[in-house]
Amino acid sequence: MSAPATERTRVAGSGLVARLRELGMADVPAAGGKGANLGALIAAGLPVPDGLVVLAPALRAAMAEAGATEELARLHGAALAAARPGAPADVRDGLEAACRRVQDVVHRAGAPAALVAELRAGYAGLGEDPPVAVRSSAVGEDSSEASFAGMNASYTNVRGAEALVAAVVDCWASVFAPRSVAYRAERGHDAVPDLAVVVQLMVHARRSGVAFTADPVSGRRDRVVLEAAWGQGEVVVSGRVEPDTYVLDADGPRLLSVHRGAQDVQIVRGADGGDSTVPVTPGEQPVLSPAEAEEVAALALRVQALHGQPQDVEWAADEERFWLVQARPVTTLAPAPAATDAAAAPAGAPVLHGLAASPGRASGAVRVLHSPAEGDRLLDGEVLVAPLTNPDWLPAMRRAAAVVTDSGGITCHAAIVARELGLPAVVGTRTGTTALRDGAVVTVDGDTGDVLPGRSAPAAVPAPRGPAVAAPRTAPAPADEVTATGLQVNLADPERAAEVAALPVDGVGLLRAELLLTRALDGRHPAEMIARGESEQVVAALADGLRTIARPFAPRPVVYRTADLRTNEFRGLAGGEAHEPVEDNPMIGNRGCFRYVQDPSLFRLELEALARVREEFPGVAVMVPFVRTGWELEACLELIDASPLGRQRGLRRWVMAEVPSVGHWLPEYIGMGVGGVSIGSNDLTQLVLGVDRDSADLAELFDEADPAVLAVIDSVIATARRAGIPSSLCGQAPSRRPEYVDHLVRAGISSVSVEPAAVPATRRALARAERRLLLEAARAGGARA
């Protein structure tokens, strides 16, 4: 529910800094997920320490005042190119240097004088130099789609106005660290991030930990899982210690079991007011008594009731009470556990046992590493074994088949990231780095916490990650709902093709070219490779990637959208500055269809690769993006027809409907031979409403269900139906808004295409919408009778 207009005005009127207690969930675009969540908890009467939020526009204001906005965007684009999954090794090697250049820009810019003054005043309002925690609150962070767990820096026991300003700038810079850039690249978040910063009064923590209001490993929603350690919570979320673990029945809540951890250190407030690491005195008592565990669980369940979905809550206890210091939706709930295929498990007793932290089972050769700096030694498909895996390990984790750690609990940052990556993980083994040897082949069972000798038998439907044999978490389930409206997936990564093809989907509605091109171009600008006579290398690499995706989906269709990089993104490729202009607004600049007409060199290579793949997989189709006018599409289709692809029989030519002019031109497009239209709802909404979809300031204006947007969509679908060609929609709205699916079904759309994680919910929404439509038709028929 949106905050009242008066509240939004008051927050906006406070400039670059807002008080936590003045914020609510309507303020996510300015305060980020963490800041907005904390404000909502305070408003609900929950025990949350007060504080401030340096709002997201402050970072943009700092860059603008320093004249560094364009430089930041350019260098960030280069860092993303180095961090993208599948980037060539030599490009990946430049990630740290690229990130340092971005961070240097932030530090040189510093905080503008207006922000410093406002931050000093807000800090003075919290008390006389009180110790505070300074933590990132990125827009999109702590959301239901991605946690960004531990990716950006946090600073505790910061004291004094000067130290606070410095911590805020350091927090800004941390969003451009390699681990954070790699995490965003993994999820396709390409824009320069909007980052707010939470400044929160410190709890003098004697005990602390994390509470999940659903079991993050088994997926059971009738369980609450708590982890608790002595001192401040960093040791829990970082995985530095194995905390005590409590499992409670949510009905009550009632304590069911306690697992004692291994804690040798704690972080406390030192005599100088800063953090101090001291030993933990061994004792027989767990960190929490049964009554205290139930009290913390009850607080966490109140947070869940407030938000209506399972929550990941961080808590701390001083001498007097329990406090809640952070809350976010759980992003990594596993599906209901499936029956284990005992025949697929390797023989022999476990060689190691720990906490089951991320479900699934995978086999591979062991690689013992002791720091992220050794990450390059990990080969694709090996089992990463480490003392702990904080977010700095993300680039290596992406190449691993599974993860095993000495320390950590199931709610530490590394466990969360492993679950988001779909990697089986066993943490808290205590002796993994000494008990396992490089090269030994093991199977990691993230459902039981066992590390077993040998390799598991291949699964019936394999989902390989390099040389290892990775068993899927469950066998591919048949569609529990049969729908007349097609359900397809959006896909970019060939490495996920086998896994995603096992889902109950009708094909790939949007195959994004960008990741395939990053690999095919070896991180270089296409003009550089073409000039060096390396066109065949590009075609062969692109065709290989296409085959990797088309093969597991065959005979289902795969619609390949040709390259739609903007000029600022092309400039991020090696050599790009020599070939790409600096455009004031690249979002509506030289891109898509018009770019192919102006310079068809790369487009021709894509068409050649598609022609080779279609000889083996004729279900592959071509889709032209960002079409503005009839004459440019006509010229583009002539390029297709003149290529080997255009001479193949049965080729379906699609266009993207992203520009509002499609509502006028579509009948002519169809007359030119277009055989399918796919609505890109994100760009279409942006252009119909005149809203920059990357701007947090305008987020409340961006509405895919605005009547003006729906009018264009309805027109496109109606035109396609009259002409007898398929229509589809790819965007975020169908996966987030069931009522949007209902509208599309009523309009008569042929299919929708969503991200793989949204397939089950979208399938159910389609089935409900179709049943509702049939029921209404039956009632109308009965009334006429």
Give a concise summary.
The chain is α/β, with parallel strands linked by helices. Helix content is 38%, strand content 19%. The protein folds into four domains: 197 residues, Dna Ligase, domain 1 (2-Layer Sandwich); 123 residues, ATP-grasp fold, B domain (D-amino Acid Aminotransferase, Chain A, domain 1), CATH 3.30.470; 123 residues, Glucose Oxidase, domain 1, CATH 3.50.30.10; 295 residues, Alpha-Beta Barrel (TIM Barrel), CATH 3.20.20.60.
Sum up the structure in keywords.
single chain, 785 residues, alpha/beta, Dna Ligase, domain 1, Glucose Oxidase, domain 1, 4 domains, 9-stranded mixed sheet, 8-stranded parallel beta barrel
How would the blueprint of this fold be written?
Blueprint (H helix, E strand, L loop, with lengths): L4 H9 L3 E3 L8 H16 L7 E4 L2 H9 L3 H15 L5 H4 L2 H15 L3 H12 L7 E7 L15 E5 L2 H14 L3 H9 L8 E7 L5 E6 L10 E8 L3 H4 L6 E6 L4 E6 L5 E5 L5 E5 L10 H18 L3 E7 L4 E8 L22 E2 L1 E4 L2 E8 L14 E4 L7 H4 L4 E4 L7 H9 L3 E3 L4 H4 L5 E5 L4 E4 L16 E2 L14 E6 L5 H5 L6 E5 H8 L5 H6 L3 H19 L4 E4 L5 H5 L20 H7 L2 H14 L5 E5 L5 H13 L10 E5 L4 H10 L4 E5 H9 L17 H17 L3 E4 L2 H4 L1 H10 L3 E4 L4 H26 L1
Parallel strand pairs: 16-17, 17-18, 18-19, 23-24, 23-30, 24-25, 25-26, 26-27, 27-28, 28-29, 29-30
Antiparallel strand pairs: 1-2, 2-5, 3-4, 3-5, 6-7, 6-12, 7-8, 8-9, 10-11, 12-13, 14-21, 15-19, 16-20, 16-22, 20-21
Helix pairs in contact: 4-6, 4-9, 6-8, 7-8, 16-18, 18-21, 20-22, 23-25, 27-28
